[in-house]
Amino acid sequence: MFLTEGALSVDTALTTATSLFNWVVSSITSNPILTAAFVVSALIPAGIAIFRHLKNAV
Q1: Tens of pLDDT, residues 13-57
Q2: Contact indicator for 28, 35 with CB cutoff of 8 Å
Q3: What number of CA atoms fall less than 13 Å from residue 10's CA on the CB side?
Q4: Is residue 1 classed as helix, strand or coil in its secondary structure?
Q5: d(CA 11, CA 22)
Q6: What is residue 53's three-state secondary structure?
Q7: Contact between 12 and 20 (Cβ < 8 Å)
Q8: Measuring CA to CA, how many Å separate 34 from each of 2, 27, 39?
Q9: Is-contact 51 44, C-beta < 8 A?
Q10: pLDDT at 56
């Protein structure tokens, strides 16, 4: 199967996105402050949503 120019562009874009994602994740995990900020930014909205759901259930 021959790759067309469009398929090569998609392949290049996916490769770039993957390497960018890996760089971001390694940057966050290598810095304890960024790791804590990332975890807190994920847990606080989840906690608020659970609290609202429980509050409205009563």
Answers
A1: 899 999 999 999 999 899 999 999 988 998 999 999 999 999 888
A2: yes
A3: 5
A4: coil
A5: 16
A6: helix
A7: no
A8: 43, 8, 9
A9: no
A10: 84
